[in-house]
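We recall that each integer encodes one residue's backbone shape. We quote one record:
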Amino acid sequence: MGQLSASALRSLFLAFFGMFSDCSTEAQANIEVVRDMKKTALYAWHQAAGAKIIDFCGYLMPVQYSGIMAEHQCVRSSAGLFDVSHMGSFYVMGDRALDFLQHMTTNDASVLKNGQAQYTLMLYPDGGVVDDLIVYRVDHETWFIVVNAGNRQKDFEWLSRHIQDFEGVAIEDHSESLSLIALQGPESMHILQRVLASSVCEQLSAFHFLRTDFEGTEIMVACTGYTGEKGVEISVPNQSAELLWKTIMKEGEAFDIQPVGLGARDTLRLEMGYPLYGHEITRETNPMETRLRWVTKLEKGDFIGREACVEAARNPEKTLVGFSMEERAIPRQGYVLYDRDDNEVGTVCSGTMSPTLQKPIGTAHVLRTVMEPGTPVFLEVRNKRYRGEVTRLPFVKVAGKRS
């Protein structure tokens, strides 16, 4: 993989800070008045490692250590370790927990067996997205849910508001007591074998999880992630989080593991075309127009927002596409795209300088008339137009992708 020039590195850095957030607009507004910032159980380690710390969704989080470019490349070539403990963690329990989740989410949770997980959405009645999340089926009566950090309070209130219609079902917020550590990259499973019993790794496949023991503490290891690479996300009680983190870092030394901040987490997910709440999916977007039909199972029966999805599916006007730039113009959220006849055809959702492709890439909501790969589009930046073209997603193909 080639190296980016100094100017390209600067463009990548500026592009990241110009567009990155998994916080909703409401959450960002709330952050401005937060005085006592929250810290994860790994905060002291991040400080000692020299991480650049930022205010993110009310938490003091590492945005980078050695640099976004180096951390990104490390995950693509070897392995990286992420602290994503700011994410929300809920338990839903009760004999009718499945019925409740079927009503609240778009995917079909009934197909899950114990030890399986799925990506899904929660919608408002008008089809707008409350949040995207992952649900894990622990057993018949117990489900685990991971939600976006910026939406945690909103999600918990939304679920609690509707749970009263399902007698015997309860929801608990465990976000403050659990840490979430993501180990991602081609060498991640080899490192995990050194940390846990090898038999644990052999049992894992995409969107499966299991509970196992680490130094006398029960942890949950899930074969999920946000980078497109092989890897796992580990839920661990706060009191054992630093020991687990240090153990993974030590065992990963032979594979050149690096700690990775939120900056590279975002460039990695964008190269895969993965959506980010507040960008590709929002309160105003319908999943039928955001490439998320595959997790919106209209045939499963009623759920909140289903009627709006049925209506949107009849005659969708927009869709979500990827695009790349032929010139060094960095797409930023909100920038406008035009066709060759100067007609406005779309709006940028996310954009960055791709560390892998070494060119600017982005996603955009566009009219379906320009959705085909290869279609030229023109990005307006400071009253000047730059040529690009619609590109197939993902931008980067990952060998042996597990999550």
Q: What stands out?
A: Confidence is low (pLDDT under 50) at residues 1-22, 24-34. The radius of gyration is 21 Å. The longest strand covers residues 129-139.
